[in-house]
Amino acid sequence: MIDFVPLLQPDRGQPARTIHVVHPDAWAAWLNAQPPRIRTTVAAHRLTGKAGNRAVLPGDGPDDWAMLLVCNEALESPWRIASLGEQLPEGIYRLAEGEPGAAMLGWCLAQHKFDRYKSDDAAQGPRVLLTGEPAKIDETVRLATATAKVRDLVNTPAADLGPAELEAEAKTLAEAHSATLTVTRGDALAQGYPMIHTVGQAAAKGREPRLIELEWGDPKNPRIAIVGKGVCFDSGGLDIKTGGSMKLMKKDMGGAAHALALAGLVMGLRLPVRLHLLIPAVENSIAGNAFRPGDVLRTRKGLTVENTNTDAEGRLVLGDALTKAAEGNPGLILDFATLTGAARVALGPDLPATFINDDTLADALLAAGNAVGDPLWRMPLWNGYDEMLTSDIADLVNAPDGGFAGSVTAALFLRRFVDAGTPWAHFDTFAWRPASKPGRPNGGDALGLRAAWAVLKGRYPG
Fold it and tell me: Could you tell me which residue ranges the Cytosol aminopeptidase domain spans (predicted)?
């Protein structure tokens, strides 16, 4: 992973090339204020002030030049100058007017690449951005590092990232912050967390299911739980996916990637909380001992679940993990999961479907998402659909027939494993960019991470 620290530096008047960022509405006024050589260059490039227009502008000397970008992104957008962070040559830059602010994040992330498997990708030198707000550098670097961690984990193929590798990531995190790591597997998993065990029991040797737990912080502080779905590959099980649907299932551990990154932010800034991180890590494979449609599964909570679809496995492993989280009586539970295709049909790739059982928490998350450019969309925990989970032979089913309200019924299933009085938010996130945008390449991405982090910082100030 790239070191983001050198990419942002305090502005002490050092030599730097200038970046002009002009909004389309201010184009005419900006152009009229420029000297003739600039207006001539703009005319030669046939720029009209449309968003996306850009040009290299001549400076006073033979080696002097500046960059022009016409951009309609808001001043608060992290992605305002991300395209320049990606495309400009190595060097030091400053904005001609104002401070980069939130745009420092996009500048940094534009220079991050997932190059683990690239053999001929020539490295480019850093593009350094100067800022007159040095106090914002550390937080930006923390967020860029956490986002890059999510991207790298999600992009890693399942052959190189299974339950054991997720455990290794958690171990590295625990060692870095003097946290306690507990891993439950084998018979103890089968007895204590039967749904996690059942979903992962068909995996090959070395890829056995496990529950990964990390605890950190003073026990006297408010307890919070962060849970992440760690399905390292999802074949669909015996309800096997088609090839096209299975193609991206390396990303089905995207919830775990978000949870690890968020836990790292919490511990890195030493928020005054007692953190409980839980990752049910499994591979949903096909073998003679794979669980079957129609099986009735036991749960840690004591409920029984009729399995109507082996491809609805994420909610099963999360159910046991949420039960364990609730046993610690946390004041807040956040869970992240690449849970349902229905959420993507409803909201597309950019908006995590967010289900929240507490209005105060919901208001805080939605406001934070808008403020930091990491939007969320609240979906209903509609009680009227709870009856869809009814089973004729067990306490509930994991996937109702008919396909209606698929993301809602999945969230209602999870709600059965959360204590009613505990504020809880469930992020049904895509964790993927199907098309590249400035600073956000095609591939794994963190969606909902920064919004959740902003809420935790505000809720538990240091």
Answer: 309-316
